[in-house]
Amino acid sequence: MKHTSKLIEKKRSSDQVYDGKLLKVFVDEVELPDGSSSTRDWIKHPGACAVVPIFENGDILLIEQFRYCCKQVFIEVPAGKIDKNESPDKTAERELKEETGILADNLHYIGHFYPAIGYSDEVIHIYAAKGLNVEQQNPDADEFVALFRIPFTEAMQMIETGEITDGKSIVCLQRVWNWMQAQE
Fold this sequence. Notes:
- The chain folds into 2 domains: about 5-45, no CATH class; about 50-184, Alpha-Beta Complex (Nucleoside Triphosphate Pyrophosphohydrolase), CATH 3.90.79.
- It is an alpha+beta fold and about 180 residues long.
- It starts with 9 loop residues before the first strand and ends with a helix.
- The strands form 3 sheets. It has a 4-stranded mixed sheet with strand order 7-4-9-8, sandwiched between helices.
- The chain has helices spanning about 90-100, 150-160, 165-184, and strands at about 10-20, 25-30, 35-45, 50-55, 60-65, 70-75, 80, 100-115, 125-135, 145-150.
- It contains 3 helices and 10 strands; from the N terminus they run E-E-E-E-E-E-E-H-E-E-E-H-H.
- About 20% of the residues lie in helices and about 45% in strands.
């Protein structure tokens, strides 16, 4: 990583071309490392948290949700965007409760990743939830999800068979699986 300073692009100007409820879109003019110019279209995202709820017997809880952009139902881990002035820990706790009805005695921060570095600054924080207490599900008014509980090993097989194709869920399941294996 000793050559990273030779790779940095510098912003010359920035124009916000869209201001939506969730996303803001920008077109920036940048100076490239060789001094020439280019443009970068990018999306500003508030960030998100994803949680893998783990029951005492090793089962996990996943959700099924229709995603309009892709016109299909996906199998996912519970997740949601970070609200303004909200910490990732609070977001993880809130989203877990809203989407699944679960409160966790222990939320373990596993790490983070950037799902779309070519066009977005979105960061997703990964949590493992343990000490689960199931209460009533309370999804957002425009959110419809189905819950299902399966052994963690089965979820990992579903990644291999292509039944789980959501990138966020694949990364989160793999990272939490590795964290759990290291705990043993």
